[in-house]
């Protein structure tokens, strides 16, 4: 049986290593590698890109741009960096959005969504697309993530036995309100402006809760939260990785724990609220549907593999 040749450029980082480990277990994939001394050799890397059926870029933005500038035009590339997510020449790798899966099937250049952006877009895009939420409504978004989202450096900080007490408490970041995910959060929802975005990192390894509060008066063509939950469920009907819970469905302890989908690649949506206010919540793993899981899903679609191959649901 012939195997797909896959090259992971940047397989030493958190996302790249996770992709590499996932694909190493697949019977139909051959992982292309470079000797350590060639890991930063541009010509050697470009040669691997040309040889591969598909390449994952798990690099800083500028390194990604440099590689792409030298890669063959027909090379199939999935970039996990921020570099190309709002580039009109690239396909945004969120397969569950309307028409996006078909675009991915024929794409050579795919930008894998950011983790925070994934949750926000999953909640807001369907409502704007359906005319329920006005595209000019000013939204806010709160996102709680495990420290693995900060990469190897942050993981080491949290694992340090001599760490200071500040690591024991949740920490708000992105204080300048210029987080790198904001451009895609606006562009891929169809909104006229980005949300006021508050990301928070806490002392657990992985998992995310992205929440968007919305007053009922801002919504059109719906009467209550149950209608909103039904609209989201209709939008994602048939999706293998995104599910929508019934309106106001509560966990046993009436709390959502951000790490409950750690190690999984699916995303769950909840809608809570009352007569005047709603809270939209996306629950998933920042390393799964928020990173490597989404990248593998894109690869599967691009290569014609089963969409969920190699994923944990």
UniProtKB/TrEMBL annotation:
One of the GO BP terms on file: L-arginine biosynthetic process
Top EC category: oxidoreductase
Catalytic activity: N-acetyl-L-glutamate 5-semialdehyde + phosphate + NADP(+) = N-acetyl-L-glutamyl 5-phosphate + NADPH + H(+)
GO molecular-function terms, A-Z: N-acetyl-gamma-glutamyl-phosphate reductase activity; NAD binding
Ranges for domain Semialdehyde dehydrogenase NAD-binding: 5-105
Pfam families in the cross-refs: Semialdhyde_dh, Semialdhyde_dhC_1
Protein keywords: Amino-acid biosynthesis, Arginine biosynthesis, Cytoplasm, NADP, Oxidoreductase
SUPFAM superfamilies given in the database record: Glyceraldehyde-3-phosphate dehydrogenase-like, C-terminal domain, NAD(P)-binding Rossmann-fold domains
Keyword Amino-acid biosynthesis: yes
InterPro entries: AGPR (IPR050085), AGPR_dimerisation_dom (IPR058924), AGPR_type-2 (IPR010136), NAD(P)-bd_dom_sf (IPR036291), Semialdehyde_DH_NAD-bd (IPR000534)
Subcellular location as annotated: Cytoplasm
Main localization of the protein described in the UniProt heading: cytoplasm
Top-level taxon of the source organism: Bacteria
Keyword Transferase: no
EC number: 1.2.1.38
Single GO cellular component term: cytoplasm
Active-site residue numbers: 115
Family statement drawn from the similarity comment of this UniProt entry: Belongs to the NAGSA dehydrogenase family. Type 2 subfamily.
Function, as annotated: Catalyzes the NADPH-dependent reduction of N-acetyl-5-glutamyl phosphate to yield N-acetyl-L-glutamate 5-semialdehyde.
Protein name: N-acetyl-gamma-glutamyl-phosphate reductase
Source species: Haemophilus paraphrohaemolyticus
């Amino acid at each position: 049986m012939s195997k797909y040749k896959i090259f992971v450029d940047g397989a030493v980082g958190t996302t790249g290593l996770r992709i590499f480990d996932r694909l190493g277990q697949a019977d139909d994939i051959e992982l292309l590698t470079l000797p350590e001394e060639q890991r930063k050799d541009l010509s050697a890397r470009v040669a691997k890109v040309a040889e591969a059926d598909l390449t994952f870029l798990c690099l800083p933005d500028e390194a990604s741009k440099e590689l792409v500038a030298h890669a063959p035009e027909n090379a199939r590339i999935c970039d996990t960096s921020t570099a190309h997510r709002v580039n009109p020449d690239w396909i945004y790798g969120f397969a569950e959005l309307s028409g996006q899966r078909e675009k991915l099937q024929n794409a050579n250049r795919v930008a894998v969504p950011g983790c925070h952006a994934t949750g926000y877009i999953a909640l807001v895009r369907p409502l704007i697309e359906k005319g329920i939420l006005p595209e000019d409504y000013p939204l806010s978004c709160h996102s709680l993530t495990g420290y693995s989202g900060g990469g190897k450096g942050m993981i080491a900080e949290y694992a340090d036995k001599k760490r200071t007490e500040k690591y024991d408490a949740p920490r708000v970041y992105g204080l300048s309100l210029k987080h790198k995910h904001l451009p895609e959060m606006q562009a891929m929802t169809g909104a006229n402006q980005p949300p006021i975005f508050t990301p928070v990192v806490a002392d657990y390894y992985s998992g995310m809760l992205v929440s968007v509060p919305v007053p009922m008066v801002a919504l059109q063509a719906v009467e209550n939260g149950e209608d909103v939950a039904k609209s989201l469920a209709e939008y994602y009907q048939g999706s293998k990785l995104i599910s929508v819970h019934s309106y106001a469905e509560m966990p046993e302890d009436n709390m959502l724990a951000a790490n409950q989908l750690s190690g999984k690649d699916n995303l769950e949506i909840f809608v809570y609220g009352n007569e005047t206010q709603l809270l939209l919540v996306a629950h998933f793993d920042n390393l799964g549907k928020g990173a490597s899981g989404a990248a593998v899903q894109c690869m599967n679609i691009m290569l014609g593999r089963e969409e969920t191959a190699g994923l944990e649901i």
